[in-house]
What we know:
The chain contains eleven helices and nine strands. It has 311 residues and is of the alpha/beta class. The model has no long low-confidence stretch (mean pLDDT 91).
Amino acid sequence: MAELIGFVGMSHSPFATLLPPADETAPGGRFLRDAERVRRAVERLEPDAIVVIGPDHFHANFYDVMPPFVLGVEQAVGFGDFGSTPGPLPVASQLAWSAYDGLADAGFDVSLSYSLTVDHGVVQGYEMITGGVDLPMVPLVVNTAAPPLPPLQRCFALGHALGQALRNSPYGGRVLIAASGGLSHWLPSNDPRDPAVTGDRRDALIHGRADAQAFAAVREPRVRAMGGNPSAPVNADWDQWFLDRLTDNDPSAIADLGHEKLEANAGTGGHELRCWLIGQVAAGLPLAWSSYEPVPEWITGMGIGTTFTVD
Length: 311
């Protein structure tokens, strides 16, 4: 049986790699310093595999077919957006299939991918937590952009089922669970039903799979242009409430919020917190340590939460 040795939750942001701070006193410096602290702690734990839960930003999943959950079971490929590592990534296939079987037995119709493309929403945290791209991973992508947004209670239940599936796996290694998602931040709508989403942008959200690289080449300069915006809002008080709930081992309070309250408090980008919820519930452990830096210039509050069991 697999041994779950802990959970790490971490924000991601394109600007953590594109616009790194000059030193620890600059915006984002504390976040990167504490991310390095997490990496060293993970190194001491010596995990054999890592389950990485994160979103996709229209680099692999589009509205021709949009699954609420998709699990990579054989191959994973980094898209290489915003400075994240491109190319093949190692997959812990036996562990991935155990996760799938356990989730299926629990009544979850999770989509499968034998060759899953993952963007910075998975890869950036994976790299920062493990110090590279060598540790075998199980990628679980959660849709957090627009419907079908899985309800928070469904994410809570999936977390329980995932944790049980991993513990029951015949994979005999030490497994770390990691989740990546921005804390509170407000982003332009990506909902094709929104009257403001029109023209080429709407077409790309639906048909971008036909040439994802071309879509990214148009979209990413727009995202880069958002960097350095001092008026980009975050809700630091709410972010701290969220981290406190996980420190108190009270994820049910987050699940009870529902969609509307989550978006009202954490913004459209805050739906990525579904990934944290799934991961922490799967691990079944309260956060032992958290760090938070509100960095509106980078669009998102940069939060870190960690909990480990140590031999």
